[in-house]
Amino acid sequence: MRQIGVEELRDIATGAALMGAGGGGNPEVGKLMAIAAVREHGPVSLLDPSEVPDDFLVTSPSGIGAPAVGLEKFPNGSEFELMMNKLREILGRDVDAVFPIEAGGINSMIPFIVGAKLGLPVVDADGMGRAFPELQMSTLALAGHRICPLILADEKGNLVQIDVDSPHDAEKFARAVTVEMGATSQSVSDTTTGDALRNDGVLGIITKCQKIGHLIRHLGDYPTPASALAALLDVTNGQRMFTAKITDIKHVTKSGFNFGTVLFSGIDGDSGRMGQLEFQNENIVFSVSGTVVATAPDLITLIDTETLDPVTNEELRYGKRVHVLGLPADDKWRTPAGIECVGPRYFKYDIDYQPVEELVAEAQKKGVID
Amino acid sequence: MRQIGVEELRDIATGAALMGAGGGGNPEVGKLMAIAAVREHGPVSLLDPSEVPDDFLVTSPSGIGAPAVGLEKFPNGSEFELMMNKLREILGRDVDAVFPIEAGGINSMIPFIVGAKLGLPVVDADGMGRAFPELQMSTLALAGHRICPLILADEKGNLVQIDVDSPHDAEKFARAVTVEMGATSQSVSDTTTGDALRNDGVLGIITKCQKIGHLIRHLGDYPTPASALAALLDVTNGQRMFTAKITDIKHVTKSGFNFGTVLFSGIDGDSGRMGQLEFQNENIVFSVSGTVVATAPDLITLIDTETLDPVTNEELRYGKRVHVLGLPADDKWRTPAGIECVGPRYFKYDIDYQPVEELVAEAQKKGVID
């Protein structure tokens, strides 16, 4: 167990935005809310999964919906108290800890806000090891754990409680309610045991995010940007796939999701090549000159070439210079069931999944990328 | 208190279909389900509102959604047991009785199905005195009573629980969830006290429906169809506005509602005149030769010219000969607040509400109708 205070939150938020793979919301908003909560209530205990008793009850508070809307309409915090009270009524007892359902600018921070307010520890594990757009896309649901009881709230204090077995049905109802709540809602879901989270979650994700954020914040300690990038790729086990300038962004918010396409013009070693990225809240497919270089569930994430700061999809701007990184997904996603759940075909792309490290090696061999 | 068995249910279902004002679902489906429940479990006690103790807890089980879909996808009954169990958890006790939220082929029958299965009496009162398409359109909500806790279920046993203060928000979330449930859902809502139901409900509606149904079933006892119609108008306090043949039906199911327009060509005394009916689940505006003759909240209801059987909107057929009746709404609807809630302007018609008896008298005077 260690304490998470203001400095740690800053780094976790930055790292989570990178691991959010384009989605997960703006890290500034989540960070400021979490820092305010910790300033008011004091630091939050972070439990290593190995420290969590088997019979602990853990739950995940998070935000649902289009991150672009979340920017203007973020939670006021009292929604979570309402929902946690409702969860207590359902369970007949309090939960022992909270955990993030995904890595992302907003959803990595919400457990710390709730933890600070309610005096609950946060477990260093999540249900995705990255961000994904839909509720059933968690390693916990994949392993057969229930998402429900799923409680949704809006900023008016409206509560909707969903109790269904199928993770896809949970997603379907939550999405419909979220649209009516104005395209974003707050939620509490995926209540399970310490044992289940340790077996079926992605472990150590918060510590990983913190390391990433710490490295980016201490960029000046590295002799060159290239050496800092190398260190970042080492921490994330990732690859630089492409370096480019953003030349076009098509963006639409529909049914509670952000959909979009980003076009890139290569620079430096990638000069003369064109990149294309498809996203649905999170980045799903990246290709260069028509050759697919990475797909979900592997992480496609953009970072600023100067600062190495992650660039989430609501921060995309014409002319921005970015490295496009490819990071391998957690092994739990690289199974047939995982790929069926979150692979490119689920997102309606007629592409077979292949691990990013293989695709990158092939593309390099063909001279498609640098 | 009196007992409701198979014969009574037949009559109630017929009368409720008439009072459903075109909506409320097909009376055959509801009737067959209720009869099966009463055959299995025995008759259901019907309580006169005056017999209901002030502190009785009463609730309303019903169906939500487009009646045209309800025809193919009607409840299997176990949804209501699931929902009543959930309601017990919320309230910490059982309810003492159930009541229909509206008069209509399906929703007048569901309380008898639930009453028979769970051994609960039904109160002879509803929340509309007719059918209406949206949840907030009840005299109970109009009087300030909460619709929530509102529990929704589908035939898969999926449960969604809505807990919001605003009746319009309850409707909004329920509609979104109902659409995802496949355009119909089952619900339990409007839990209140015996006292509140007696003060703010529409009293005696079931007995009224039974009288109407009894009269129609005993049509042969009247010397002529005209004298039976006169008796029916006497029981309902209604008027025959138009007699016609259906010449066109436009019909679309959208966002969990049935929308439509029906065109009529007058026959008998109305020969040579054209009628037009607009509906949104229920009939909303009826006009003849461009003159409005009746609008919601007054009831516009069609009956077969031969059998006097009510013709609900999913039974509309080209060539069918009908009387178009106009029945005054309950006085609770004829207030400024009632008219704002369910008058023609709420349904997007640029028409001021005027009581049907006045509109009919004016139209007769102008020679627009017979």
From TrEMBL, chains A, B:
It comes from the Bacteria. Residues 8-162 form the S-Me-THD N-terminal domain. Coiled coil: none annotated. Residues 167-356 form the S-Me-THD-like C-terminal domain. It comes from Lacticaseibacillus pantheris DSM 15945 = JCM 12539 = NBRC 106106. This is DUF917 domain-containing protein.
